[in-house]
């Protein structure tokens, strides 16, 4: 079972065309990821302490909009996968209203640590160990 | 029983001080009001059709912040009352984390209709009839 | 001369009724206050260092909506006054499109410092000295 | 000369890590596109009238984050290109702080019209004619 959350699309989430103003999808992706971490009893505070990271920052993101949605709709947003490399992890999302897929997207994240004045991506293995299996 | 909703405070709802960026409270007030309408099978579309209104627009709003809240907190947001006058209605809100009140606020709304190029507030009695008792 | 900023109302700032989704006004109030601080070479980092505060947090806010506005409109947002008491300061705002006032609002803020696990409002005089006269 | 806008990164645009909460970049991309249309005296109202479209909706979007940015920074956001196909157009964006690129992104849009209950992407040539050359 993948992780999923439910989002009630509200009037204020929509634009003058009456459909979801698209940056909101990314707000919901991020919130789903943070809510997923919470199921592991992790958050940005605890990751700072245990991993010394300043955050699970974004490298690359994207979304494809399959069908419009509007206020009154209830979206089920699922994390459909997490792919780990040495220094990145890629979370994939799928949002449905009923059976209909309305959005697919991803976030490529790193575990960032300070390197002097800059940030650099640290190995993600310690986070992977903490998170465990998506299906768990 | 008053109407209530639950809001999971997410990382992205908070500012660099680590607490809720306050305009979000008004986003949640509005969403709670729209969700409350939905319990009456009303929304901005149906109100347009049945009442000829362009919307239940805002006249005056306010909020008092009693205590800070941060990501990971779960807020219970209640509509604690609706007061009706001839051409306005005032919705009051209270947000709690556990037993602690963190925010109290209100929205003064009208039922706006077109009057030439301008908008004017129409009598609210037809909406009051549709909404019925908050406690119902 | 009071401080003022210019805001181009964008499509995404508006709701399905085609007018500004009202929480955005508070986002702009806060941004105007931060921009005003910047004219004094102050920001939330420098205030933390010089005043030991965790931030100029909100106690109470409000807004009155005088007329609707939509995308394509250009709003001039002015700070019309700052009133100082011992432990609070109240910033008043006025937004106009052309000559027409569309919004008036205020933010009551404190200079918050940590007091064990809680926050408390410290005297605002040191901030008042740094900010100086609004008209300067 | 490409189209460009200036964005003052504000406190409320940033998250508890102190950097821009990433969905805001897409809000700014969309606002830049709408501001660009305004330079052609076009907006979502006029496009509805002249092209019969319900909007220049999104099909696919993405962004790559090259470096973090924080409040107090001033971002110059440029539209670096528009590529037209039969039924889509792809707008590319680049955001810089000083000389440093912090974000690159794109929006793939269509000109959507109603087709019964659904939406379909109409030919974009009429919009292309109205918009003309990006460099103009």
Topology, pairings included?
Four copies of one chain form a homotetramer.
Chain A: E1 3-8, H1 23-39, H2 44-51, E2 58-65, E3 74-84, E4 89-97, E5 100-109, E6 111-115, E7 118-122, H3 125-131
Antiparallel strand pairs in A: 1-3, 2-5, 3-4, 4-5, 6-7
Structure characterization notes:
The structure is a homotetramer of 136-residue chains. The first copy, chain A, is α+β, with helices and mostly antiparallel strands and 136 residues long. Chain A is 24% helix and 40% strand. Chain A contains 3 helices and 7 strands, in the order βααββββββα. In chain A, the strands form 2 sheets. Chain A has a 5-stranded antiparallel beta sheet with strand order 1-3-4-5-2, with helices on one face. Chain A has a two-stranded antiparallel sheet with strand order 6-7. Chains in contact: A-B, A-C, A-D, B-C, B-D, C-D. At the A-D interface, helix 1 and strand 2 of A face helix 1 and strand 2 of D. Strand 2 of chain B pairs antiparallel with strand 2 of chain C.
Key terms for this structure?
alpha+beta, 136 residues, 7 strands, homotetramer, 24% helix, elongated, two-stranded antiparallel ribbon, five-stranded antiparallel beta sheet
Helix content of chain A: 10-25%
Terminal-residue CA separation of chain A: 7 Å
Catalogue the unreliable spans of chain A: none
Strand tally of chain A: 7
Oligomer type: homotetramer
Percent strand of chain A equals 35-45%
Radius of gyration of chain A: 16 Å
Which overall shape of chain A is indicated by the principal axes computed on the Cα atoms? elongated
State the order of secondary-structure elements of chain A, H for helix, E for strand: EHHEEEEEEH
The neighbouring-strand order within the major sheet of chain A is 1-3-4-5-2
Derived structural class of chain A? alpha+beta
Q: Mean pLDDT score of chain A, rounded? A: 94
User: Which chains have the largest interface?
Assistant: A-D, 24 and 24 residues
